Amino acid sequence: MSVTSTQIELAARPVGDPKHSDFKIVKVELPEIKEGEMLCRIIYQSLDPYMRGRMDDAKSYAVPVAIGSVMEAGCVAEVMESKNARFQTGDIVNGRFGWRTHIISDGAGVRKVNKDIAPISTSIGILGMPGMTAYVGLLDIGEPKEGETVVVSAASGAVGAVVGQIAKIKGCKVIGVAGSTEKCEYVRDELGFDECISHYNEDLAMQLSNVCPNGIDVYFENVGGKVFEAVLPLLNAFARIPLCGLISRYSHVGEFPGPNLLPTLTRSILTNRLKIQGYIITERWNRFPEFEKDVSAWIDSGKLKYKEDFVDGIEQAPEAFMGLLKGKNFGKLIVRTSEDPTL
Amino acid sequence: MSVTSTQIELAARPVGDPKHSDFKIVKVELPEIKEGEMLCRIIYQSLDPYMRGRMDDAKSYAVPVAIGSVMEAGCVAEVMESKNARFQTGDIVNGRFGWRTHIISDGAGVRKVNKDIAPISTSIGILGMPGMTAYVGLLDIGEPKEGETVVVSAASGAVGAVVGQIAKIKGCKVIGVAGSTEKCEYVRDELGFDECISHYNEDLAMQLSNVCPNGIDVYFENVGGKVFEAVLPLLNAFARIPLCGLISRYSHVGEFPGPNLLPTLTRSILTNRLKIQGYIITERWNRFPEFEKDVSAWIDSGKLKYKEDFVDGIEQAPEAFMGLLKGKNFGKLIVRTSEDPTL
């Protein structure tokens, strides 16, 4: 079976916001599979903010994508042909296949997707990496207690939406921060957060203060920048900050203008006995079984809702990714690269 | 028995560095003790950086000292007369008696000092609050592992000196940051740190980088400011920062000039999965028995050394305290207000 994969390579390291010329669409003829390999047709490809970091060559927790290499991504795929004992033709699998339509895989890091729990697209969303990121960061670092106030930035996003709903399940008062009016209404009315404030508001700090009369006990950080600065004076003694992402800063170039707020933060860490901790979900994958059990049950009982934002065609991935960094998506952003056979 | 106590009151809230006019020396005639009370003669009075925070009325973990009230301090005292069943004349006790020579106490929060372990002055030093602060912050938050690199600021101080020596006991490579050449030599040659660098060096960041070829795994923070900024780029993945004090910032007035380093810190927290946590030792007093057992044994075996810097006379307390905030003391700063009967 001769197959052509369309794939997106990193053409140049972005300076500031990524642009189209930083990506290159190429077509590659795939060879025949060898013993132990399988040919996969990608159905859904995830787009996530962390991918911006992989485009830089700054020191970080993961090696950068090399220029000329295919952009990385988690994907859901169908096995088209297999010489790998673990997988058979027709299996639906999850793997880090990248921004492409087809791949030959040796099965390393690939797992079968359970088609019975929820639509298979959720294995790169609420039942996959973003959901795990929310679950582990909130529960293991944030340690929310009943009656506490939890603030979540990027509240309508793939991670934030799950964080806030789990915090509600745990009996917390939950405040979201999101962008558009439409997103804020969704977060409040559909997801059941107590309030949601737009970061477009000029008086964000005042509005946040008004809806957090008892201060903030957990701040789940996805964005950095002005939202963090608005949260800072409201943090209670012993507040916890799981630091999951800083999307507002990923494309920043150069120094940040003063005043220097680092001493303000460290003073608050000291006087309020704060805990701020960063984490990377791939290092905490041992929590997957418990996560899958809990989140599946919550989806099943209607306690946990999710929204997916589909874009059709691999060629649309760069544009969609650039939009993601600007908050233009609404829900978990997914590139649909081919037909979903389970629908 | 009629006794006059000489005591130091807070006369005004300092703007910036404290000055003599912020304090007032007063003499107070103490009444006869009542049932349940005891009269104590203070022998040693502690001076600690945290007291600067108590002079402000900014929101903090403890209520500020009121204008016209006696400055707070931990003290070692001798019971002169007692109508309290728990204490007898001649007992040596530790209590938060304040900047004064005599006090009538009802015994609340007062404990007897074991005269057999070490000189009684250590009950406000290495065997008291500063020692506990070092022990708990390093072990419970810093979690040093054998072979790791630990950096300690204010390394010759009452807390820093203990932190570094315990880190050595735990098998770490330990780098101190201190002020004068004399202090740095003491930290390296007497206390056994691997290296000690002066923060007066203009190329502090470069020097620190040179002596930490494997990066920094634990930074025990006592000072803030330029030492923190020099440490920041050297932090390893999963580094821990127990945030104990920020002495370089306590008297700062107004904003800090840019660039804004807050995003630099949060980026490092994310990419390096750092944990930064503030703590207050009085909230972790449950660790006292284990602390006392370990530290007594280490002092006994010569593994843990300490240095005390005595100032004579309660009238000298303000001057000595102002010096402490500038790093003029050398070792645990103690005001000797009367004769030590155990010597």
Polypeptide structure, described:
By secondary structure, chain A is α/β, with parallel strands linked by helices. Chain A has 2 domains: 3-125 and 306-336, Quinone Oxidoreductase, Chain A, domain 1; 131-282, NAD(P)-binding Rossmann-like Domain (Rossmann fold, 3-Layer(aba) Sandwich), CATH 3.40.50. Chain A is 25% helix and 25% strand. Chain A has helices spanning 51-55, 129-142, 160-169, 181-190, 204-211, 226-231, 262-271, 288-300, 317-325, and strands at 3-10, 23-30, 38-46, 75-82, 92-95, 102-105, 111-112, 149-153, 173-178, 195-198, 216-220, 235-243, 275-278, 308-312, 332-336. In chain A, strands 3, 4, 5, 6, 7, 14 and 15 form a 7-stranded mixed β-sheet that branches. In chain A, α2 crosses α3 (160-169) and α2 packs across α8 (288-300). The model of chain A has no long low-confidence stretch (mean pLDDT 96). Chains A and B meet through α7 and β13 of A and α7 and β13 of B. β13 (275-278) of chain A pairs antiparallel with β13 of chain B.
